[in-house]
Protein backbone atom coordinates (compact mmCIF):
# COMPACT_ATOMS: atom_id res chain seq x y z
CA UNK A 1 0.00 0.00 0.00
CA UNK A 2 1.07 3.53 -0.60
CA UNK A 3 1.61 6.20 1.99
CA UNK A 4 -1.74 7.92 1.43
CA UNK A 5 -3.65 4.63 1.41
CA UNK A 6 -2.08 3.74 4.76
CA UNK A 7 -2.94 7.18 6.10
CA UNK A 8 -6.55 6.87 4.90
CA UNK A 9 -6.84 3.47 6.58
CA UNK A 10 -5.38 4.91 9.81
CA UNK A 11 -7.76 7.88 9.83
CA UNK A 12 -10.83 5.79 9.03
CA UNK A 13 -10.37 3.63 12.13
CA UNK A 14 -12.92 4.35 14.82
CA UNK A 15 -10.42 4.85 17.63
CA UNK A 16 -8.72 7.76 15.85
CA UNK A 17 -12.03 9.54 15.36
CA UNK A 18 -12.97 8.83 18.99
CA UNK A 19 -9.65 10.29 20.12
CA UNK A 20 -10.22 13.43 18.04
CA UNK A 21 -13.68 13.88 19.56
CA UNK A 22 -12.17 13.38 23.02
CA UNK A 23 -9.57 16.08 22.42
CA UNK A 24 -12.20 18.59 21.25
CA UNK A 25 -14.57 17.81 24.13
CA UNK A 26 -11.64 17.90 26.57
CA UNK A 27 -10.66 21.36 25.37
CA UNK A 28 -14.20 22.63 25.83
CA UNK A 29 -14.42 21.00 29.26
CA UNK A 30 -11.14 22.62 30.26
CA UNK A 31 -12.58 26.05 29.40
CA UNK A 32 -15.66 25.31 31.50
CA UNK A 33 -13.54 24.27 34.49
CA UNK A 34 -11.24 27.30 34.13
CA UNK A 35 -14.24 29.62 34.10
CA UNK A 36 -15.77 27.78 37.07
CA UNK A 37 -12.57 28.14 39.07
CA UNK A 38 -11.96 31.79 38.19
CA UNK A 39 -15.62 32.87 38.60
CA UNK A 40 -16.82 30.76 41.53
CA UNK A 41 -14.03 28.94 43.39
CA UNK A 42 -11.48 31.77 43.46
CA UNK A 43 -13.94 34.37 44.84
CA UNK A 44 -15.06 31.88 47.52
CA UNK A 45 -11.45 31.26 48.56
CA UNK A 46 -10.89 35.02 48.50
CA UNK A 47 -13.90 35.55 50.81
CA UNK A 48 -12.66 32.84 53.18
CA UNK A 49 -9.23 34.50 53.29
CA UNK A 50 -10.83 37.72 54.46
CA UNK A 51 -11.32 39.47 51.16
CA UNK A 52 -7.71 39.15 50.03
CA UNK A 53 -6.92 38.40 46.43
CA UNK A 54 -6.01 34.85 45.55
CA UNK A 55 -4.36 35.93 42.33
CA UNK A 56 -1.34 37.42 44.02
CA UNK A 57 1.98 38.40 42.57
CA UNK A 58 5.41 38.99 44.00
CA UNK A 59 7.68 41.40 42.17
CA UNK A 60 11.19 40.00 42.37
CA UNK A 61 12.84 42.82 40.44
CA UNK A 62 11.41 46.18 39.41
CA UNK A 63 11.38 47.17 35.77
CA UNK A 64 14.10 49.47 34.56
CA UNK A 65 12.73 52.10 32.24
CA UNK A 66 15.24 53.17 29.66
CA UNK A 67 15.20 54.70 26.26
CA UNK A 68 15.44 51.34 24.54
CA UNK A 69 18.91 52.00 23.20
CA UNK A 70 22.01 49.93 23.80
CA UNK A 71 23.24 52.42 26.42
CA UNK A 72 19.93 52.52 28.33
CA UNK A 73 17.97 49.32 27.64
CA UNK A 74 14.47 48.70 28.95
CA UNK A 75 14.47 45.78 31.38
CA UNK A 76 11.07 44.24 32.21
CA UNK A 77 10.10 43.44 35.78
CA UNK A 78 10.53 39.89 37.03
CA UNK A 79 7.22 38.76 38.54
CA UNK A 80 6.42 35.56 40.44
CA UNK A 81 2.69 35.00 39.78
CA UNK A 82 1.81 32.51 42.53
CA UNK A 83 -1.93 33.27 42.30
CA UNK A 84 -2.11 32.12 38.70
CA UNK A 85 -0.17 29.00 39.64
CA UNK A 86 -2.62 28.29 42.48
CA UNK A 87 -5.58 28.74 40.12
CA UNK A 88 -3.99 26.34 37.62
CA UNK A 89 -3.52 23.73 40.36
CA UNK A 90 -7.18 24.10 41.36
CA UNK A 91 -8.19 23.70 37.69
CA UNK A 92 -6.11 20.54 37.44
CA UNK A 93 -7.55 19.01 40.60
CA UNK A 94 -11.12 19.66 39.46
CA UNK A 95 -10.48 18.24 35.97
CA UNK A 96 -8.70 15.19 37.42
CA UNK A 97 -11.57 14.61 39.86
CA UNK A 98 -14.19 14.85 37.10
CA UNK A 99 -12.25 12.43 34.90
CA UNK A 100 -11.87 10.05 37.87
CA UNK A 101 -15.63 10.14 38.52
CA UNK A 102 -16.41 9.61 34.82
CA UNK A 103 -14.01 6.66 34.50
CA UNK A 104 -15.34 5.16 37.73
CA UNK A 105 -18.95 5.38 36.48
CA UNK A 106 -17.98 3.76 33.16
CA UNK A 107 -16.09 0.99 34.99
CA UNK A 108 -19.05 0.28 37.29
CA UNK A 109 -21.40 0.15 34.29
CA UNK A 110 -19.11 -2.29 32.49
CA UNK A 111 -18.85 -4.49 35.60
CA UNK A 112 -22.65 -4.58 35.94
CA UNK A 113 -23.08 -5.38 32.25
CA UNK A 114 -20.50 -8.18 32.50
CA UNK A 115 -22.19 -9.62 35.60
CA UNK A 116 -25.59 -9.51 33.85
CA UNK A 117 -24.13 -11.22 30.78
CA UNK A 118 -22.59 -13.99 32.92
CA UNK A 119 -25.87 -14.45 34.80
CA UNK A 120 -27.79 -14.79 31.53
CA UNK A 121 -25.26 -17.33 30.26
CA UNK A 122 -25.62 -19.38 33.46
CA UNK A 123 -29.43 -19.31 33.29
CA UNK A 124 -29.61 -20.24 29.60
CA UNK A 125 -30.39 -23.90 28.97
CA UNK A 126 -27.36 -25.85 27.81
CA UNK A 127 -27.18 -26.64 24.14
CA UNK A 128 -28.03 -30.24 23.24
CA UNK A 129 -24.92 -32.36 22.78
CA UNK A 130 -23.64 -32.73 19.26
CA UNK A 131 -24.31 -36.18 17.84
CA UNK A 132 -21.32 -38.44 17.44
CA UNK A 133 -20.01 -39.51 14.04
CA UNK A 134 -21.62 -42.95 14.46
CA UNK A 135 -25.02 -41.39 15.17
CA UNK A 136 -24.73 -39.12 12.13
CA UNK A 137 -23.79 -42.09 9.94
CA UNK A 138 -26.64 -44.23 11.29
CA UNK A 139 -29.10 -41.35 10.72
CA UNK A 140 -27.96 -41.06 7.12
CA UNK A 141 -28.33 -44.81 6.59
CA UNK A 142 -31.83 -44.74 8.09
CA UNK A 143 -32.85 -41.86 5.84
CA UNK A 144 -31.51 -43.67 2.76
CA UNK A 145 -33.44 -46.83 3.70
CA UNK A 146 -36.65 -44.82 4.10
CA UNK A 147 -36.18 -43.32 0.65
CA UNK A 148 -35.80 -46.78 -0.95
CA UNK A 149 -39.09 -48.00 0.51
Could you walk me through the main structural features you see in this protein, from its secondary elements to its overall organization?
The protein is mostly helical. The protein has a single domain (3-125), classed as Orthogonal Bundle (Non-ribosomal Peptide Synthetase Peptidyl Carrier Protein, Chain A), CATH 1.10.1200. The protein has helices at 3-12, 14-48, 82-123, 133-148, and strands spanning 58-61, 78-80. α2 (14-48) crosses α3 (82-123). 1% of the residues are buried.
Brief overview, please?
This protein is mainly α.
Q: Quickly count the helices.
A: 4
Structural class: mainly alpha
Extract low-pLDDT stretches.
none
Shape: elongated
Question: What descriptors fit this protein?
Answer:
Non-ribosomal Peptide Synthetase Peptidyl Carrier Protein, Chain A, 69% helix, 5% strand, two-stranded antiparallel ribbon, 2 strands, mainly alpha
Amino acid sequence: MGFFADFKKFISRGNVVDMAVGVVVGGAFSKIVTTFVSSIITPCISAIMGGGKVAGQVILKEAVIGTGTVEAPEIPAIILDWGLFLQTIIDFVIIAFCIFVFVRIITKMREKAEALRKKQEEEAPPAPPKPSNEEVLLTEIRDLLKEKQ
